[in-house]
Amino acid sequence: QGTNTVNNSLRRLVRCCLINDWHKPFEAEVKASKGLVDNRFYEYEIYIHTVYKGDVKEKLATDTIFGDGPFHSCGPDVLDEGETYLIYAKETDGKIKLTSYRKISDVSDDDIVRMTTKYDCSCEVKFNYDKIYRPEGSFPDLPAASENECNVPEKWCSRNSYCQRNDEGQCTWGELGDCN
């Protein structure tokens, strides 16, 4: 079960990093769970406390957000009423959907600094999926990263990693804060 939990967490993070075209983290309290909609999504009424990057309130016309339901391949997105979360979301089919979330009590000052000042959305993050998902095999390395890319190292931590341009304009991999 431990391996399964790690794999699900990794899939959720990889999904967030790769398809999250919104990259607007915000802190929100779950006011009410409206339950399962169409057996596909959980619907939540939220109250946004803090927007860390971008103007989420303008994009989020309603205070409703949707999470994956119980039959989603990465598992369900279950939020607790009354709990406050750091949320990453994106718009899909006219709905604002969770891509990643963490209880705000588990968010450190380094996490906030990293997400507000370190990420560079103009850099492309590249994963070597063969090495991540099948570490027992022997697979080639990714080609060298271009100026606009960061190659994710084999031993990386989703919690403290980021990709940002340096003073010369090259996208570079970095780490800030604890990995746990």
Structural class category: alpha+beta
Separation, N- and C-terminal Cα atoms: 19 Å
Task: Identify the overall geometry.
Answer: globular
Q: Whole-number radius of gyration?
A: 17 Å
Number of helices: 4
Question: Quick one: how many beta strands?
Answer: 9
* Percent helix: 10-25%
Order of helices and strands: HEEHEEEHEHEEE
User: Which runs of at least 5 residues are low in confidence (pLDDT < 50)?
Assistant: 1-22
Main β-sheet, spatial strand arrangement: 3-2-1-4-5
Mean pLDDT: 80
Strand content is: 25-35%
Biggest beta sheet attributes: 5 strands, antiparallel
Q: Your description of this structure?
A:
By secondary structure, the chain is of the alpha+beta class. It has four helices and nine strands; from the N terminus they run αββαβββαβαβββ. The strands form three sheets. Strands 3-2-1-4-5 form a five-stranded antiparallel β-sheet, with helices on one face. A two-stranded parallel ribbon has the order 6-7. Strands 8-9 form a two-stranded antiparallel sheet. Helix 4 (129-133) links the parallel strand 6 and strand 7. The longest helix is centred in the N-terminal third of the chain and has 18 residues, at 2-19. The protein is globular and about 45 Å long. The two termini are 19 Å apart. Residues 1-22 have low confidence and may be disordered.
What's the structural blueprint in terms of helices and strands?
Elements: H1 2-19, E1 26-37, E2 41-51, H2 56-59, E3 64-68, E4 84-92, E5 95-103, H3 109-118, E6 124-126, H4 129-133, E7 149-151, E8 161-165, E9 171-175
Parallel strand pairs: 6-7
Antiparallel strand pairs: 1-2, 1-4, 2-3, 4-5, 8-9
